[in-house]
Amino acid sequence: MDDLTFSARRASAAATTKAAEPADLETRFRTLVQSPLRAGLLRYLSSRPEESFDVESLMQTFGRLRLDVENCVRELADFGVAQVVANTNPPRYTVERPENDAVVDLLDQFLERRAAVSSEDQ
Question: With contact defined as beta carbons under 8 Å apart, do 95 and 46 qualify?
Answer without folding.
Answer: yes
